Amino acid sequence: MKSMVPLGLIVATFALTSSRFFDSAKVFRVKPQNEKQVNFLKYLARIKQLDFWHPDSAPHIVTQMQVDFHVSAHQSRSVQTLMEKNEIQYEILLHNLQEEIEKQFDGKRNFTGRHSYTKYNDWDKIAAWTARIAKIYPKLVSRIQIGNTFEKQPMYLLKVGKENVRKKAIFMDCGIHAREWISPAFCQWFVKQAASTYGKDKIMTHLLDSLNFYVLPVFNIDGYVWSWTQDRMWRKNRSKNSTTNCIGTDLNRNFAAAWGTTGFISDDPCDETYYGPAPESEDETKAVATFIRNHLSSIKAYLTFHAYSQMLMFPYGYTFHKAPNHNELTEVAKAAVEALSSLYGTKYEYGPSATVAYPTSGSSVDWAYDQGIKYSFIFELRDEGRYGFLLPESKIKSTCKETMLAVKSIANYILSYAS
Ligand SMILES: [Zn+2]
């Protein structure tokens, strides 16, 4: 029996359970035209509370970069005035963040307790789903626990592929950044599509016969839970820092890949891009890195899913030097992006992350590459900023369908060429 919950109640319930409220908070977009404007924006970030959506933090800003940031209701008027005084042209992407948060559920937030591939699922639903999907497809899907999060949540990984002793493998993770909800939605979609089209779709059947996919549906579980219950804009994990009351480390700065050296990383635990007290200091990073290290002989590709900005990138992020197989990575990315856009015409940029986006260190994709996984990619899924992290549920299906084509394209290449 379906339970009918009136929309007003749904909105009110979400507002009540979410301790951080974003009523009248705004998201601005600016494109600094010169160094003076870049410096002004960096100054603005120091004197006002700006939550950067793109790039990840203020030091990354350079001339002509598209910069999106969120400002609370009480600061947005003064931020606007300051930008006008300094002749910075801006666009308001979102006028009322709280409204967009509510709208991402398409007015029908799923309270019936049922998991759905075309809706955003909270962690409890996803955890239960990992057990269920392994039960439904026992010959294709199995569940492994690779560790526990800081808050002692079990980290479940799904192994997807036909039983076969010696196989190449592809490792995929979603949801390393908590607020990028479309990413875990894709990992769930992938597992379901792969398992349910085995024996029907020729390419998928061939892939699962010859490859294993290790899929981590939510990397940063504690942060994801927090983004559902307390703060929709949460990004980091939820570990405590010994020196301050500020919570969390950016797990995608916590890997041992030029850790803490380049790309405006932050040693301030209060920052959104805080790299942690040491490489792999975080339980979640440690669990993933340990699993990958233990399976290096089979893992040929590493794919990590983020949002937003529609990019497919590969190493390096920590240097502008080209990766040894740069030309090959460019070709693989190009083919994947072409496959992706063939469905709905969605445009993706591709290339090394330091140049396509901006320099970063301690990222999982650079670390995986330096472990010898020569096909390591980072996806930034939809959109380009109209909704940012608040992509409506109505766009989950099309986003997942097109992304699937890109992943199949990469997997096919791995099958044929990776040694
Ligand atoms: Zn991200």
Automatic annotation (TrEMBL):
Peptidase M14 domain mapped to chain residues: 119-414
Looking at the keywords, is Magnesium present?
no
The organism's superkingdom is given as: Eukaryota
Q: Name one GO molecular function term.
A: metallocarboxypeptidase activity
SUPFAM superfamilies (UniProt xref): Protease propeptides/inhibitors (SSF54897), Zn-dependent exopeptidases (SSF53187)
Q: Which cofactor does this sequence's record say it needs?
A: Zn(2+)
Classification via InterPro entries: CARBOXYPEPT_ZN_1, CARBOXYPEPT_ZN_2, M14A-like_propep, M14A_act_pep, Peptidase_M14
Residues at the active site: 380
Q: Which GO terms describe its cellular component?
A: extracellular space
One Pfam family name from the record? Peptidase_M14
- Gene Ontology annotations of biological process type: proteolysis
* UniProt key word Zinc-finger: no
Q: Which residues form the signal peptide?
A: 1-19
Instruction: List keywords of the entry alphabetically.
Output: Carboxypeptidase, Disulfide bond, Hydrolase, Metal-binding, Metalloprotease, Protease, Signal, Zinc
UniProt record similarity statement? Belongs to the peptidase M14 family.
PANTHER family given for it? MAST CELL CARBOXYPEPTIDASE A, PROTEASE FAMILY M14 CARBOXYPEPTIDASE A,B
Protein's name according to its UniProt entry: Peptidase M14 domain-containing protein
Q: Which organism is it from?
A: Mauremys mutica
